[in-house]
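cron nightly-structures :: item 1 of 1
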Amino acid sequence: MMMMMKQLVIVFLLIRASVAQNRRDTGPAPAGDPVPAQQYIPPPKNWLTLNGSEPVVIARGGSSGVFPESSSLAYIMAKSNCLSNAIMLCNLQFSKDGLGVCLSDVRLNNITTINGAFKDQQTTKNINGNNVRGWFSVDYTLEQLGQLYLVQNVYTRSEAFDNTQPIPTPDTIVNYDGVSNLWLNVPYDLFYSQHNISAAKYITEYLQKLISNVYYISSPEIGFLKTMDRKVDHNTTKLVFMVLEPNAVEPTTNQTYGSILKNLTAIKSFASGIVVPKSYIIPVNNKTRYLEPATTLVTDAHNAGLQVYASGFANDIYSSYNYNFEPEAEYLTFIDNSQFAVDGFITDFPTTATEAIVCFALTNLNETRKDRPLIITHNGASGVYAGCTDLAYQQAVDDGADIIDCTVQMSKDGVAFCLESPDLIGKTTAATVFMSKATSVPEIQKERGIFSFDLTWTEIQSLKPQISSPFDKSNPPIIRNPEAKNKGKFVTLDGFLEFAKTKAVSGVLININNAAYLASKKGLGVVDAVAKALSNATFDKQSTQQVMIQSDDSSVLSKFKDVPAYKKVLHIRKEVSAAPREVVEEIKKYASAVTVTRTSVISTTESFTTNATNILRDLHSANISVYISALRNEYLSIAFDYLADPLIEVATFAQGVGVDGITTEFPATASKYFRSKCSDDVEKQDFRILPVVPGELLDVTDLKTRPNIIYHPALTVADIVRPPLPPVTPVSQSAPGSSGLVAPAPQGGVPTNVANIGLTLAAIMLFCLLSMGH
């Protein structure tokens, strides 16, 4: 108990600032009193909900995407990080002595520590015609259940908060956790009735005598709802029919839920609304994972006078490639269209649902902030299309990128083109054609590869680009936009620069790697090729568009010191935490900006942020800009603190620590954040997407199981200074037929019209880590 109280105190401290800023205050509330729901006044919008009001956010067991469902920590976070009209949902189960508890399932398996406390007491019970084995709450008194603790039952979520939170009752949620808006869901009334426990009696005779804020009561059992229809005050409490999967059988009528939904008028006779899995409204093709056309269910239900609440939302469960791993985009599909809007969401991540409703739905994202960080692409919009292709660059421009990037590679015959790595495996279809050309180049990477400098440009053009994902080896694999797997064209450096000028982007970043190796071993002058291409495109004689030259080699940057129009960026690949004065002075000799890993700015351990390092302070003190690389939308790349929400990560780096540029594979996400009113640091905002404070979520974990903090070293001069570049040494050509000429613009340039995407499978990449630094 003392451990739990300590954790609650910590949580109250970490969310206090969020509470003050996320709610519109009309004056201080008495200590301990919940903030009334009427305090939040939604701005006028033309919602297509049943009554035209703003959709409500229903937190399933609180913020159950972070903490164990229905734990005090989960309810407190949800209540504090959402608007004051958010609803907290409790799945009501019952103890042997007929008292209610909030648990996600009738079985205690996988959601509590029952196995350790009552190891050999599993039983088999019949639930709605199915024999189910496990531990059941109905076999234990409330006092016995009080010996158990909650655990996280979704394996992709952190176990760091397990074994510390007791099983709550509805009255403890209200009295101790400050929940003022409660939704009670009764999933197994018939089962409990067979054990002489009446959910209806409990709710009417016990709960409503204690509190008066049970605003919603739901159940998948029609018999229970008809019983409650005679007992509740319909002016204060809504009855909602919880619809299960289409082929599941409703126990009162023995009809499938799919068939019951065909008679919405009949449902209206015992309920004011329905809860349906989101696939009832917008189906997802099970084979392709792309969206299918929306059904008419919401419109039909509204015509019948029923409100519709969509369930099944979670940031860490991917449903469709259409959303590009951006959870807000999924919510918006259900509320921001010309046909309908659901009346609410049941979600494990209520903060994200609130963001979608308040910050983005029915809103023109036209906020302009001059003080925001630059949005810099990482191989174009490489989360949507194959990196460094014409389609990726066009998408990046459409998505609002400020700076588009080209990492320059060289073909055997001297053509400079854009691709993330000189190894063509994974980024192209080279492995299916040129495996015989695979070699080992330890100066570049440990693994064997098929390298661009061993193929002519004609040979490279015979390949297709290939979209890649850093998480395609995860379990389950997470791939990107398979319809566009091999779409797009390779882009020459000349074509890239011409495209940038035509599209009038704010600037370009030219990334140069492996220059010493290419010069000494392959006779290829990548620095000369870049300088010539920029000069030919007159980028050295203009100031309209910014030109950044980035390299991890100080000698490369030195080659451009006589061109003041170019901003030199030193790329530091290793994880660091600080830059001593002598190192900063050395950096200033070569660059005015630095790109570092995001974990160099905010350290992480086992997917928890630990602290903000000193690197930003050290570099800013010398007027050196700091860019971070690279952000991704997939939840596996996002620390737990950010609630599996890429927008919160952007907010943390932009507002929380104040970087000067954000390098991202999904520029649309960063652009969406900066164009939203919720990114504005203004106190009068009803709701803002707030940055997290690094290390605060880790502080809530149990000391006994807390992961060790890893401290990165400080930068040294040796990390910065490289030997002078060797001269370009000609080598004999081993393959005839190369012309050495730059390919025609139609082959390597970026066309104005983007090609349509077609259907294929996923890409392959070589690594998958939970916390990615690059």
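cron nightly-structures :: done
Residues 66 and 574 are 30 Å apart (CA to CA).
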